[in-house]
Amino acid sequence: MSSIEKAIERLEKSKAEKKSVDRSAVAVEPEKTATPEAAPSETVAASQPVEEKLSPAVQESLEEPNEEAKRINLDYEALSSNGFIVPHSGNKQLSEEYRIIKRPLIRNALGKGAAPITHGNLVSIASSLPSEGKTFTAMNLALSIATELDTTVLLIDGDVLKYSLSRLLGIENEPGLIDLLSDKACNVSDVIIHTQIPRLKLIAAGHRSEKSTELLASKEMERLLDEISNRYSDRIIIFDSSPILATSEAAVLNQHMGQILLVVEAGETPVDAIKDSLSRLDHEKAIGLVLNKSREDKGSNYYGTYY
Fold first, then answer.
1. In the sheet that 259-265 helps form, which strands lie side by side, from edge to edge?
2. pLDDT for residue 175 is more than 60
3. Nearest to 264 by CA among 233, 285, 243
4. Are 109 and 120 in contact (CB under 8 A)?
5. pLDDT number for residue 15
6. What is the mean pLDDT of residues 256-260?
7. Short-list 285, 296, 251, 270, CA closest to 115
8. 150, 109 contact by CB (below 8 A)
9. How far apart are CA 16 and CA 97, in angstroms?
10. Distance from first CA to last CA of the chain, Å, rounded?
11. Which residues contact 126 (CB under 8 A, 6 or more apart)?
12. Which residue in 257, 222, 255 sits closest to 239, CA to CA?
C-alpha cells in the first residue's frame, strides 16, 4: 500500500470528526528513502540545476530590486489575525508544523532528494474543491521558506479565476502572470513585487482573460517556467493553484510543476474527491497531502504533541 493510499485510509477513518481550529498538519507518511524502483508517488524527487542562459529581463527582475521596482509592505497585523505565520506572530505551533511541511519540499527543490525530477523547485499548492485552505497553505509555506538562510521564494497567484491570493495581499489590480503570457511587451521585471521580507517576492494573477486556460498551456508559459526554474537553483517558486475538480486551469498548470501539495480539509473533503484529484495528477511528480483545519490531538503517538 502506497503512502498516499495509507493517507487516504486514515482520512476515511477520521471522516466523521468535526472540524475545529484552522491548523495545518502533514497528512502523509514520513519521508522514506526511495530506491529507483519505488512508486512515483512515494519517491522523494528533486530537480538538478540546469546551466541555461536567462533572458536579461528575467535575470534583472530576480536580483536585488532597483529603485523603480514595485514594492509592497505586507500588513503583518492583519495577516497574523487571520492565522498567518508572519515574523513575530507568536504562533509557535503553526510555525513548527510548516517547518515540517517545507523541509522535504526544499530538499527536493535543491536536488537533495532521493531522485531527480524536472522542475523540482516549481511547487503547486492545490486542492480538490474551493475553500479547503490552499491559499492559506501557499502563503504560510512561502512565509516559512522565506525564513531560510540559503533559499528564496517567489509566490505566484496561479488561481487566475478567483484571485484569492492577490486579494489577500491587495494586489488584485496589479499586472501579473496572465499579462506575462498574453502581452509580448510585458516582462518579469514589470510584474514582480518585492516585499519587506528580503527573501519573499510576489507575482499577482494579472488581468483577467477568457483564454486563461490556453495561456497557461502555451509555449510561452513553458518558456517562462523553464527560465525562472533553471536559472536560480536556490529559488523555490510556489503557485497558488485553482481547485483541481472545479477548473480546467488547474490541470494545465500542474503539468508544469515538479512538486504538488494537495490540501485536504479535515472532516470535509470527500475521500472520492481526493482520489479523483490524485488520478488527474502526473504520478511522475512528487505528490504530497496536507491536512488543513485539523482537530488538535495531543494524544497522537504518530504526530506527537503538534497535532
1. 24-26, 286-292, 259-265, 122-127, 235-240, 152-157, 200-203, 193-194, 70-71
2. yes
3. 243
4. yes
5. 58
6. 95
7. 285
8. no
9. 23
10. 24
11. 134, 241, 242, 243, 244, 250, 254, 260, 261, 262, 263, 277
12. 257
Give the relative orientation of helices 3-13 and 271-279 as an angle to the nearest 10 degrees.
Answer: 160
d(CA 24, CA 295): 10
C-alpha cell at 261: 501539495
Q: For residue 154, give the amino acid letter.
A: L
Beta-bridge partner residues of 260: 124, 287
C-alpha cell at 180: 506575462
Residue 244 φ then ψ, to 5°: -65, -40
Cα separation, 306 vs 82, in Å, equals 20
Q: What is the pTM of this model?
A: 0.78
- The CA angle 212-218-220, to the nearest 5 degrees, is 110
pLDDT value of residue 294: 83
Q: What are phi and psi of 27, to 5 degrees?
A: -110, 25
For the chain, the maximum distance between any two Cα atoms, rounded to a whole number of angstroms, is 57
Phi, psi for residue 218 in degrees, rounded to 5: -80, 165
pLDDT in tens, 1-23: 566 666 676 666 655 454 443 44
What are the φ and ψ backbone dihedral angles of 51, each rounded to 5 degrees? -75, 110
